[in-house]
Here is the input.
Amino acid sequence: MRSVGIVGIGSYVPENIVTNKDFEQFLDTNDEWIISRTGIKQRHIAPKDMPVSELCYQAGLKALEDAQIAPEEVDLIIVATITPDYAFPATACLVADRLGARNAAGFDLEAGCSGFIYGVVTGSQFIATGMYKTVLVIGGETLSKVLNWKDRSTCILFGDGAGAAVLQPVKEGFGFLGFELGSDGSGGALLSQPAGGSMYPASLETVEKNLHTLQMEGKEVYKFAVRVMGEVSVKVLKNADLKIEDVDLLIPHQANIRIVDAAVRRLGISPDKVVVNLDKYGNMSAASIPVALDETFKSGRIAEGDIIVMAGFGTGLTWGACVLKW
Ligand code: ACO
Here is the structure.
């Protein structure tokens, strides 16, 4: 098996910022409640005419430029998203077309906020086995398009964005050292967009009942997240034969500062090794981790040889983590 690593990264968020104060204009909420319960101060929201493929294209382009790889060299594009442009065709195919990646296969992968982890784990298998040399993995979301903007318990949580990573073979001993994935469909109803699929096809009734918007049992998802974030991080380190002291950086899914803090306490990792940017972006689902990775790298906080753990949880329910040596 070949060693596989990240050789280029990029991210993109739409310009438009919505602050907590902005919500006060049309919702019974306030800045203090949102910050104390979530840690979120603002989020970027895509304009109505900007689909997720545009965000993914911009992030993908930057990642390819960072890796100095031409689009024609890409063998496979995986887009992790729960807010694709269409039910079909796949957003990955649209992004490949925009990029000019005419030799690439493409498919979408749906694992909610764990999507980027699922994406890099999936993409790296093709390279490890020698089937492909270059895989572009993009986590992109426009959750703003499927939110109920009258539901204060959900719409304040999310933001739009995309982050991308180019995977290629790397020096032995570097790159991905281990991963851990899991799912539990019995919790599927805790976080879903119920209508528009084959269970509840679109109808006037589904629209009237708001079933095309994100529905969440926040408290239950919170309990699940606190439990699973610690567990999956412990397991991924065990899989890679590493200890928490070996970790230089933890990049957790950016859903809620209280969930991050609970995971940090559980793991006993020093908070200065933990990346937090949810105050600026809110929960960008599959985009959260790659945007945080990109920002952290560009800020000069990652050095060659650093051990990085990325861990997420999301709708499905799903969870996933991977550990890599940069
Ligand atoms: N502003 C003011 N009050 C609010 C707001 C708001 N925006 N939202 C809810 N409230 C009220 C509630 O109505 C409730 O009022 P009541 O006591 O009169 O009934 C009160 O605040 C407390 O509400 P709770 O739901 O108990 O608040 P909680 O502390 O649980 O925080 C939250 C809610 C932030 C949603 C939390 O449960 C959470 O973060 N859950 C996890 C969500 C998550 O991470 N989801 C992403 C999953 S990843 C993916 O795949 C997309």
In short: The pocket of acetyl coenzyme *A is lined by residues 29, 33-34, 37-38, 112-113, 152-153, 156, 191, 216, 218-219, 221-222, 225, 255-256, 283, 285, 314-315 (CB under 6 Å).
